[in-house]
Amino acid sequence: MAKRRAEQQGMAESPWQRAWQGLGLWLAVLLFFAAQAPLAEARQPGSGELQFVGGSDTTGGLLLSTDYQVQVSGLLAETRLQQRFRNPSREWQEAVYVFPLPADASVHGLRIKAGDREIVGEIKPREQVHRQYRQARAAGQQVAAVEQQRPNLFTTRIANIAPGALVTVELDYQQPVSYRSGEFEIRLPTTLTPRFMPGEPLLEDIEPGAWQQGWALPTPQVPDADQISPFTVSRDSLPADSHQARVRIKLTPGIPVDRVTSPTHALSSQWQDPHILVSPQQGVITMDRDLVVRWQAVRGQSPRAAVFHEHWQGEDYLMVLLVPGQVGSARAARELILVVDTSGSMSGERMRQAREAVLQGLETLTPADRFDIIEFNSHTYRLFAAPRPATEANLATARQFARGLRARGGTVMAPALRAALMDQPAAEEASHVRQVLFITDGAVGNEAELLAQIHRELGDARLFTVGIGAATNQYFLREAARFGRGSYTAIDGAGDVALRLASLLTAMQAPVLTDIQLDWPGQGAHEAAFPARPGDLFRGEPLVQAVRGVAPRGQVMVSGRLPDGQPWRQPLSLDQAAPMVGLHRYWARQQIDAWQDEQFQGVSREQIRERVLPLALQHQLVTPYTSFIAIDRTPVRPLDVPLQSDAVPSLLPADNQPGMLRYPQTATPAPLLMQLGGGGLLMSLVLLWLRRRAA
Length: 695
Hints:
Layout: H1 2-13, H2 16-43, E1 51-54, E2 57-60, E3 63-73, E4 76-86, E5 92-100, E6 106-114, E7 117-120, E8 122-125, H3 126-138, E9 141-150, E10 153-161, E11 166-176, E12 178-180, E13 183-188, E14 232-233, E15 244-252, E16 257-261, E17 267-272, E18 275-280, E19 284-286, E20 291-297, E21 305-312, E22 315-322, E23 334-341, H4 349-362, E24 370-376, E25 380-382, E26 388-389, H5 392-403, H6 414-422, E27 433-440, H7 447-457, E28 462-468, H8 474-483, E29 488-491, H9 494-508, E30 511-519, E31 529-530, E32 537-538, E33 543-548, E34 555-561, E35 567-573, E36 578-579, H10 583-597, H11 605-619, E37 626-635, E38 643-648, E39 650-651, H12 670-694
Parallel strand pairs: 3-15, 5-38, 14-39, 21-36, 23-24, 23-27, 27-28, 28-29
Antiparallel strand pairs: 1-2, 3-4, 4-11, 5-10, 6-7, 6-11, 8-37, 9-10, 9-37, 12-13, 13-20, 15-18, 15-19, 16-20, 17-18, 21-22, 22-33, 24-25, 24-26, 30-32, 30-34, 31-33, 34-35
């Protein structure tokens, strides 16, 4: 009976109901295309002009240009970064600009310049800066503030920029020079890859009609997602003179230099002994990738040991650099876990380089080793259920798997880390050294959560990170390697893959020195030395430690264990320590980072703040608890004139695909919602009419 009724209904549906169903389908298609115009209007800037919406007007957005003036002396680089904001509109504006800095930068100075006026900033507790900035903005005073969102991500806010005016924000920051295998390097980030923000958006925290500072909304895992997600736009969406940078670098390396190179930009170098002046050949660079500068010591002149000293505010600060060299060649059997990021941000050239990195890692395996490959995006996949011996058959399967890797989905990193770290070798197989090679651009917003996971789950493994891309999240990649007792390697272009990875993979096969300890003269000095417990050293890597409270007299004894188990010792004299300006800031940054690490051991944020705050104020450093503010006490904007706010975007990194663009948008695109609502109402009426005809 039921079957008969169904057949009768099927006969009743044709041909009228099928015709109206077809009409409903066409209405849905028309609704989709009709929605595209207001959606595009809400999301996309006009060609060649950055737009922002304020009040009832749509006006030209702020234009940005940047200067980097870098002075390198020994192992520290001091940079003066000038950010110039030009207001081409007829409105008074406030600029909000989220920008990257080196992951180990120490920001210690701020000035704002408008016309012939210059205001010097002060370092203050973060809450106090927020309060004073809001008060000065409301009073019509010109005010600028700089705060840290992540150790490599900062925000500049500057209020009350007059129509047609140019305002310059000057930042002073310091960064250590990296050194490996006779090659020195500094990196100047200019943009960032949009980060993946895991978790459901906290929509109840959004005010109706409010502007978002970033493209993302806060989530339980990333509560500050809106603060670390600046809009990213393509180069052709901006005027030709916006987001351009000039770079001038003065190298005073203190050793004979063979050559200066860059994997990211063509350079012009002038030797003016004892300095080398370096700048990009084209003069002005587009802010769509990191600028990396490397200089190689003359063969045979690479430093093997160096000691530096600074006397600041009545206290002595020392830094030691030691490169043990080739002191062993023993090689243990390995269990190599290759983890590769195949999320959407890795598409294009990044994915090609990641596949090449995996294939190169497989080539280092011997029959005595075991291995596995883990890929992750929105999901995690393993090549094998458990690590397998590196037989030719298993390697052939792995090569085929690696060549088929494709980028798609989100960057859900935690399950991949768990799969790589938690599956530790059984007791009878503990002779294999477990190494995890993690290949990613690090485009995540929940860094603290992931670092805590590494701290909990590492076990006896070693975690090595490989950063792929023109604008990687170096803070996360460096910290993950440090927590993982491994090392970090950056790949800055196709030409970098073979050389940099070969050096890393060769070093991974055998540590040079383990169980390292430094004994400084005097009692209790080790309590103020950082890192307090240096990790294992691999071939070509230097040991660097900074200490406070030790005079440059006597010697420091460095000891460790060689790969064959034999003890190793080397004394270093402190009497001939070379002077170094800014060493006190480097030490203070190391101390603050050590306190920040205690959050993973259960120490509360308030306890950490109580220790960090006085040290940061003493050394004039921006931290999660301190910010810079500069206020011009003379009001410039009439209080009856409204102030518009403009979130200055970043450029999409050069090797990202267009799908990664994040356009400025309001929280309530009213025209689009009205059309969607009207279309939905029309569709409901059509479906109701069809149901009545069927009945």
